[in-house]
Write a structure and sequence with these properties.
Low-confidence stretches: 1-34
Structural class: alpha/beta
Number of strands: 39
Catalytic activity: Hydrolysis of terminal non-reducing N-acetyl-D-hexosamine residues in N-acetyl-beta-D-hexosaminides
Family: Belongs to the glycosyl hydrolase 20 family.
Strand content: 15-25%
Organism: Thalassomonas haliotis
Helix content: 25-40%
Mean pLDDT: 94
CATH architecture of the largest domain: Alpha-Beta Barrel
Enzyme class: hydrolase
Keywords: Glycosidase, Hydrolase
């Protein structure tokens, strides 16, 4: 155990299960006179503090000052004022406040409080000797400065806890999250709104990001055009080839009447081969309004093998006599049925007559969901699988283990879920993990939890029925704190029983390790010791059990995602690693080579189990190709403005399977728009809306320098030529001729996504644009230049003709979402993000529009009720001068988008 962690344990004793003091103690501590000495709190005192202490969190400025630590975060820091107001007098001492703060606090100023960063995002506010208690209504404050910047209100985290030794920690009520009655999303009332553009919205002087107001959004939405395109014939994702059948006499689209329903006709098709898939697709068609009966239009299904086509390819032909679907395999039949569903408009009793020949652009079309940081329910995953299948995505990368949680039951290693799946207030971490990410002290809250073996197998079976491969991920060697703490508890348990072999069997930490490091998320104890044989025994045991779960569920595990995140500075103080470096015959001579060794060795363990290796690109880039299996999946996540294309190309040139996972466009935990009220992290992008994902050309990463901006909305250059260093050594080069990427993956990281509804809000409708780009290659996409090219705002490879074609395609896509697809998502009870409304007041009239035509708009004038917007609204002088509000409305009228003020 490291010294810093030992000090942490000494400073904060365990709270869980140790409260021996009389919780009914009703001493009048809140009524004591200020001149009297402060008392030791009872549980009742602590409870009253939790209920009566009002906390207010106010961002003061992001502008760096002399108080910023030049050795941390590049000299950048932001300043926050925390204020505390007691509604009743507080005359007890020896209590502390524990809270989550994403960026570590550097310094503070207060006469009565002190603040300290403990581990990860957990901080403690303690009382100085000068603390004099609170009079009723008295306000005290604490100013602190933390690393980097804060430009989103969701950076603040909820559930501050008050604690005193030997008592139970309690959530301070004023910091609990609440639910917005209009949007259904989490809000934090104790956080003051961000309002100052220069001091709060901007990160630094170079930050050119524009706060998106209603007028700017109105102008942007005008690009969709004034005439709504016909979306009734559109399919998402777009088929490779589609021909619409028109009446030769009138030139109008021919329609098939389906009021009498449809009749399934399997022909010579073996029902056993496709029955589960057909049942899933038929269930969705029925939910969208199609009836199935023997007198309906024949729906003829068949499999017609074609080795020249990719898995999942199909043909769909709707004629006056029948609907014909031919897949190259059962997956193709399933996809054909989903395209039939895509042609449907809810409430319509006709289908357009079309002839479709379709196949996917990428074989890998994936979504990663992080359930480790904050848990998401089995029901959420099952609903997500339905929607992934509806839009022809075929890979679910399930991130099951990280620093803040382990989410999969492993029989025989019960500590992984008994301890690693929940957070409460136990600094010893023998019953649970410390409460990171605003989790609070309640181990039963919704952010905690895990999938039992039965749950996981149910997910696997559902995925198989939808032709979706589940790729589990339990991150290692970094990002492994939950596993480490669980196995440490196991170690302590069996040591106490003097079963020493069992104690060390799956040990992931070394007691004598004195390494000092800080991970990207500021943990100092989250990295598996790669020099312990027990670490590899753990990996093999876990993967053997996961493999057995997959086999029993009927979906053999074909690929496992290691993660492969490393932590600089880990293992430098490990006796085991010093001994390994001194004695190994593998050519490893220094500590920073150990991460690659771990990945290579784990990949070999997986290969012995007949499981393919996947990992993030940065960890893989350090490995030796000759030491890795022949099949390796690399998720390329380099930022485009930081020339992230170079790493993607380097790994593809190794002949590895590269899945594009670019953060600036493929991370769905980022804000949709540049507005402090938009939820999410923003370290790679301040705004990633659905249109940006639609614009993505993953086959040609560097070309985006021509029309996208960096994370501060400044231009950048992408050099994709042959680049040499000063010594003439080749450091980067273009893709080798013929190299292509395996596929595309969207990511939802869940650090501050604490509910299933918020997860759906972040995933949808972006998932539909992801599906479009993963399945369909548009004519306007710029082909990759294997000769190499240097792209910038000045180059015009993506010319005006391509731009116009792209924007026309986007207009149809946006209208298809607004007119057709959102109603289907609502039918499935998906809480997709409703867009904010574009609006302006011009010449005494209110004008409004929306990014997805087909959704309704409401407006509210001062002192009046909300009204439906149907066209320009004439305002009198008083109304025009007063505050006007607008918001969007879901198709079913049950939800509202975020209200904005017309500017």
């Amino acid at each position: 155990m490291k010294n810093s962690l030992f000090i942490f344990f000494i400073l904060v004793l365990s709270a869980c299960g140790q409260s021996k003091q009389n919780t009914s103690d009703s001493r009048p501590a809140f009524a004591s006179k200020a001149s009297e000495p402060l008392l030791q709190p009872s549980q009742a005192d602590l409870d009253r503090i939790a209920e009566n202490l009002a906390i207010n969190y106010r961002l003061v400025t992001n502008i760096p000052s002399k108080h910023c630590d030049s050795k941390q975060s590049g000299g950048n820091c932001f300043e926050v004022e925390l204020s505390f107001t007691a509604t009743e007098a507080i005359a007890v001492n020896n209590w502390s406040i524990y809270f989550s703060q994403i960026a570590p606090v550097q310094s503070f100023e207060s006469e009565e409080f002190a603040i300290k960063h403990l581990n990860g995002d957990l901080h403690r506010i303690s009382l100085k000797d000068s603390f004099s208690g609170f009079k009723a209504g008295e306000r005290k404050s604490l100013v602190f400065r933390a690393n980097f910047w804060m430009v989103s209100e969701s950076d603040a985290l909820p559930n501050y806890m008050v604690y005193s030794e030997q008592l139970q920690a309690r959530i301070i009520a004023s910091t609990r999250p609440e639910t917005d009655p209009e949007t259904g999303l989490e809000i934090l009332p104790f956080v003051e709104p961000i309002s100052d553009i220069k001091k709060q919205f901007k990160k630094n002087k170079q930050d050119a990001t524009q706060w998106l107001n209603s007028s700017d959004l109105y102008r942007r939405n005008l690009a969709l055009g004034q005439v709504l395109p016909d979306a009734s014939k559109a399919i998402i994702p777009t088929p490779k080839k589609i021909r619409y059948v028109k009446d030769p006499a009138t030139g109008k689209q021919r329609l098939l009447d389906i009021r009498r329903g449809v009749k399934l006709d399997f022909g010579r098709l073996d029902k056993k081969v496709v029955s589960a898939a057909v049942n899933v697709a038929v269930k969705r068609l029925a939910s969208l309004g199609i009836s199935f009966n023997n007198s309906g239009v024949p729906l003829k299904l068949k499999v017609k093998a074609d080795e020249t086509k990719l898995i999942g390819s199909y043909a769909l032909d709707i004629t006056p006599e029948a609907i014909n679907i031919a897949g190259v395999d059962a997956n193709g039949v399933f996809n054909g049925l989903q395209s039939l569903a895509a042609l449907l408009t809810i409430g319509s009793d006709t289908l357009p007559q079309v002839v479709i020949e379709d196949e996917p652009h990428y074989g890998f079309r994936g979504l990663m969901v992080d359930v480790a940081r904050n848990f998401h329910s089995k029901a959420f995953i099952l609903d997500l699988l339905d929607q992934m299948a509806a839009y022809k995505l075929n890979k679910l990368h399930l991130h099951l283990g990280d620093d803040e949680g382990w989410r999969l039951e492993i029989p025989g290693l019960e500590e992984l879920t008994d301890i690693g799946s929940k957070r409460c207030f136990d600094p010893r971490e023998q019953d649970c993990l410390i409460p990171q990410l605003g989790a609070g002290p309640d181990p039963t809250s919704g952010v905690n939890g895990y999938y039992s073996v039965a749950d996981y197998q149910e997910i696997l079976k559902a995925a198989s029925e939808r032709f979706i491969q589940v790729i589990p991920s339990l991150d290692m060697p970094g990002h492994s704190r939950a596993a480490i703490k669980a196995m440490t508890a196991r170690y302590n348990k069996y040591r106490a029983l003097e079963e020493y072999d069992k104690a060390s069997q799956f040990q992931l930490h070394e007691v004598e390790d004195t390494s000092e490091y800080s991970s990207v998320q500021f943990y100092h104890d989250n990295t598996i010791n790669v020099c312990l044989e027990s670490s590899y025994a753990f990996v093999k045991e876990v993967m053997t059990q996961v493999q057995a779960m997959h086999k029993k569920a009927g979906q053999p595990i074909r690929r496992y995602h290691i993660g492969a995140d490393e932590t600089a500075g880990a293992w430098t103080g490990s006796p085991a690693c010093k001994a390994f470096i001194k004695s190994n015959n593998l050519g490893i001579t220094k500590t920073d080579e150990l991460g690659a060794y771990f990945i290579e060795r784990v990949a070999a363990i997986l290969a012995d189990l007949d499981i393919e290796t996947a990992a993030w690109s940065d960890g893989l880039s350090h490995t030796r190709k000759e030491k890795m299996p022949s099949v390796v999946q690399a998720n390329a996540w380099g930022l485009l403005p930081w020339e992230g294309h170079k790493q993607a190309h380097e790994l593809a040139n190794r002949n590895w399977q590269v899945v594009i996972s670019t953060p600036d466009v493929m991370y769905f935990d980022f804000p949709y728009e540049a507005d402090p009220k938009e939820h999410g992290y923003y370290w790679a992008s301040r705004h990633t809306n659905t249109e940006k994902i639609f614009q993505f050309m993953p086959d040609n990463l560097p070309v985006h320098a021509e029309f996208w901006l960096d994370r501060e909305d400044n231009a950048f250059v992408s050099d994709d030529t042959y680049v040499k260093d000063e010594q003439g050594k080749l450091v980067s080069k273009p893709l080798e001729k013929g190299r292509k990427f395996l596929g595309l993956q969207g990511q939802l990281w869940s650090e501050n996504t604490r509910s299933d509804d918020l997860a759906e809000h972040k995933i949808f409708p972006r998932l539909l644009a992801l599906a479009e780009r993963a399945w369909y290659l548009p004519d306007w996409a710029v082909p990759y230049n294997y000769q190499g090219f240097k792209y910038s705002r000045e180059t015009q490879v993506f010319d005006e003709k391509r731009r116009q074609a792209r924007d026309k395609s986007w207009a149809l896509f946006a209208n298809t979402l607004g007119q057709k697809e959102f109603a289907k998502l609502e039918q499935a009870d998906i809480s997709y993000r409703l867009p904010t409304v574009g609006a302006k007041i011009d010449n005494g009239q209110l004008w409004a529009n929306i990014a997805f035509p087909g959704l309704d708009i409401e407006y509210k004038l001062a002192g009046k009720n909300w009204q439906l917007y149907t066209g320009p609204v004439a305002l009198d002088g008083v109304e025009a001068a007063a505050q006007v509000q607008v918001r969007s409305v879901s198709k079913n009228g049950e939800r509202r988008g975020r209200t904005t003020i017309v500017q």
